[in-house]
Write a structure and sequence with these properties.
Elements: E1 4-6, H1 19-25, E2 28-32, E3 39-47, H2 51-59, E4 71-76, E5 83-92, E6 103-110, H3 112-123, E7 128-130, H4 135-142, H5 148-159, H6 163-173, H7 176-201, H8 211-230, H9 235-241, E8 243-249, H10 255-263, E9 281-287, E10 290-296, H11 307-322, E11 325-331, H12 342-353, E12 363-368, H13 375-382, E13 387-389, H14 398-413, H15 426-448, H16 456-474, H17 480-487
Parallel strand pairs: 2-7, 8-10, 8-11, 11-12, 12-13
Antiparallel strand pairs: 1-9, 2-3, 3-6, 4-5, 5-6, 9-10
Helix pairs in contact: 5-6, 7-8, 7-16, 8-15, 15-16
Length: 494
């Protein structure tokens, strides 16, 4: 039984680190890695050169703690004799830590006064400050502990609200996406090396004549793989951001009632007066582990004298244009006499509502108000696999509708695998398109230029551009502006 839950040179490995970042990195940072507010235990993380001195002064232990082993000890202020708490201490000496630096975790009681005292005591140490959002992860990135795709996967894992989002984010955080891109990058670097070897040694006949042909064939294979990877119908991005699902239909067919039943709470106003809903009402839900953004819309009709309703209808139609999934709602009491030509009726219905021609290809058709229709009249309709016959009043048919929706969401979001992970960020897609363009220019150059006129340095320039595009995804080539945007999505203690 499904449930619905509301959601609150060939080497391009040199990183550019600005002087300002290097200066800030020399300081020791600390932050609350667990959630804010009163709780049983709060975790305060410390990372940097002052970590050893902090342990000595805040614990007064006679022997330094054993790495990666929890120790129950008294925690003192560090600059005074005052005891703050009795808590667990975990010591992670660099480089074998999350950030690659000496790192401490204090597992203290979660009272606000204790956390405030810990913050005040840590800030009293020289060159120690509160961490900026995402700074622990940024230091891990600069230490080579993870690349940018893994960083983004970690951020998505923290923000995941459904089971499907968690699985996708975990795969990316564990490096499956970076492994896919790095494999392509390695093949490109190998092709560049082969062409440059041909340039240097071909005259000495130490390199086979078919090396250029092999390089061209490898690039053509990579182009095909990139096209397949990009032609994913944005499944990964849908899963990350939520499937945009719009509820549409004529006035008073039960769209708002359906919204409320699916959400199991009163989201939209429901009355017997047609046209109650005017603006777009959005809400987020978890259906079968998939994230859904439902949108209740104004009832669609050809003409209206109400200016506000007219604007609501225009917004509803605009939303349908960009929706991933459409829930097309009809009044079942009007269907009993035309069940013999349901497809024709639906096409007419869509046309009368002024919806796009492809609406039915993206729609689940829902016949509401089945409680007002004799059961014998619904018998033939219920056998149609493309229809869901429900009653928002009695709840009849809702389980079957949720099952239909789950199958539709599975189709829209797909199932990423180790061999073929999905693209989860528009940033990745943009760089991959640039990479594909560079590879296509390389192929065009070889096909359109005679062998005697080819400048192989120009050819390798296109391949180098493709390698840089992949490097921008994984972070082997990056700018501070991109990094600032990515890490700003993290909380203070991460």
């Amino acid at each position: 039984m499904l449930t619905v839950r509301a959601l609150c040179s060939p080497c391009f490995n040199i990183k550019t680190i600005t002087c300002s970042h290097a200066i800030r990195k020399s300081s020791t940072i600390f932050g609350l890695s667990s959630g804010f507010g009163k709780c049983g235990v709060s975790v305060i993380r410390v990372s940097g050169e002052a970590s050893r001195d902090i342990i000595r002064k805040k614990t007064r232990l006679k022997a330094f703690p054993e790495p990666r082993r929890a120790l129950l000890t008294k925690i003192f202020h560090g600059q005074t004799q005052e005891m703050i708490d009795r808590a667990l201490l975990l010591w992670f000496p660099g480089p074998h830590s999350f950030t690659g630096e000496d790192t401490i975790e204090f597992h203290v009681h979660g009272g606000s006064a204790i956390i405030a005292a810990m913050y005040a005591s840590l800030a009293s140490f020289p060159e120690t400050r509160v961490a900026e959002p995402g700074e622990f992860t940024k230091r891990a990135f600069y230490a080579g502990k993870m690349d940018l795709t893994e960083v983004e996967g970690l951020a998505d894992l923290i923000h995941a609200e459904t089971e499907a989002q968690r699985r996708q984010a975990l795969r990316q955080a564990n490096g499956q996406l970076s492994a896919f891109y790095n494999a392509q990058r390695t093949r490109l670097v190998s092709s560049i090396a082969s062409i440059e070897a041909f340039i240097d040694f071909a005259e000495d006949q130490e390199i086979a004549d078919d090396v250029l042909t092999a390089a061209v064939q490898e690039v053509e294979r990579l182009i095909g793989e990139l096209k397949t990877h990009l032609n994913d119908n944005r499944r990964g991005e849908r899963l990350r951001n939520g499937v945009r699902t719009v509820i549409v239909g004529a006035p008073n067919v039960g769209k708002s009632s359906l919204m409320n039943v699916l959400s199991q709470r009163s989201v939209s106003i429901v009355t017997s007066i047609a046209g109650t809903t005017r603006d777009i009402v959005e809400s987020h839900y978890d259906i079968g582990g998939y994230p859904v953004v439902f949108a209740d819309t104004a009832g669609l009709r050809a003409t209206t004298d109400d200016v506000v309703e007219s604007e609501g209808i225009a917004r509803a139609k605009a939303y349908v244009e960009t929706a991933d999934l459409i829930l097309l709602v009809l009044d079942a009491s009007r269907m009993a006499t035309i069940h013999h030509d349901m497809d024709g009726y639906l096409r007419t219905y869509v046309h009368e509502l002024g919806l796009p021609e492809d609406t039915l290809t993206r729609a689940l058709v829902i016949l509401n108000k089945s409680d007002l229709v004799p059961s014998e009249s619904l018998a033939s309709l219920e056998t149609n696999a493309n229809l869901s016959v429900v009653s928002c009043e009695t709840g009849t048919g809702m389980a079957a509708l949720l099952d239909h929706m789950k199958h539709a969401l599975e189709r829209l979001c797909g199932g990423p695998t180790v061999e073929c992970p999905t693209i989860s960020q528009e940033r990745h897609r943009a760089h991959l398109r640039q990479c594909q363009a560079c590879l296509e220019r390389f192929i065009e150059y070889f096909h359109e230029t005679a062998a005697t006129d080819r400048d192989l340095a120009i050819a390798t320039h296109h391949l180098r551009g493709a390698v840089r595009c992949i490097g921008k995804i994984t972070g082997t080539v990056e700018t501070e502006e991109i990094l600032d945007v990515i890490f700003s999505t993290f909380c203070i203690g991460k």
